[in-house]
Amino acid sequence: FALFLQSCSCCNIVFSSLEGVSLTAAKERGQLVFLEGLKSCLDLVFGEEEEQLGQPSPLQFMSTSDLKALFDFIRTSLTPADNDSWKGSVLLVDDLSILLSLGATPVAVLDFIHYCRVVVCSQLKGNIVVLVHSNEDSEDDENDLMVNSLCHHSDLILWAEGLATGFCKDVHGQIKIIRRLSLQLTAEEDRVQIYQYKIQDRNVTFFAPGLSAALL
Fold it and tell me: What is a biological process (GO) this protein takes part in (predicted)?
């Protein structure tokens, strides 16, 4: 779990509230490895980041624009031990757009994801889940390049956005689910589903557009 937008404690609270899952317990069982980018970035900037077992900091790209150390950290963390019974490794990155803000180039980020895909998806038969931010009115060409490339190579895209009509207390936004069937080299077109949602204290409710319980 590579965190660049949130802290480990924040994610643990969210997972515990919505899913009843303890990330701390999963980490203790060896199911989860955290890279807390927020803390590591500050430690690296102020010279408090220590090398682990002689290995360079995964975030050294902040000064070199080279994501190899970050990739090596992820590859080592996901490589199963001889007695490891856990299958189906999953790499979660929150949020990939932050890497651009920290000095990485779009090409470096896309190369990083490509090599992660080779290790996680091809070799370990797992999956990669990546969060990015994008805005149609944005003038950030580097972020747009990264987002468009990721969408082009993704099997499943979840696109969350606000309502075009503005704020509504009963409908907080909509999510577009795009299943890239065209990547399977078949004659099928991509399948698109659109739902609206409302975020509650301990749950998220999804419904078809215009079918909110408050409107019926």
Answer: tRNA wobble uridine modification
Residue 197 near residue 175, CB atoms below 8 Å: yes
- Considering the entire predicted model, what is its pTM? 0.76
Q: What is the bridge-based pairing of β-strands 2-3 and 35-36?
A: parallel
pLDDT in tens, 23-52: 777 777 777 777 776 666 655 555 555 544
Using an 8 Å Cβ cutoff, are 110 and 71 in contact? Answer: no
User: How far from chain centre, in Å, is Cα 176?
Assistant: 17
Q: Which amino acid is at 163?
A: L
- SS (HEC) of the chain: CEECCCCHHHHHHHHHHHCCCCHHHHHHCCCCCCEEHHHHHHHHHCCCCCCECCECCCCCHHHHCCCHHHHHHHHHHHCCCCCCCCCCCEEEEECCHHHHHCCCCHHHHHHHHHHHHHHHHHHCCCEEEEECCCCCCCCCHHHHHHHHHHHHHCCEEEEEECCCCCCCCCCCEEEEEEECHHHHCCCCCCEEEEEEEEECCCCEEEECCCCCCCCC
Q: How many CB atoms lie within 10 A of CB 17?
A: 12
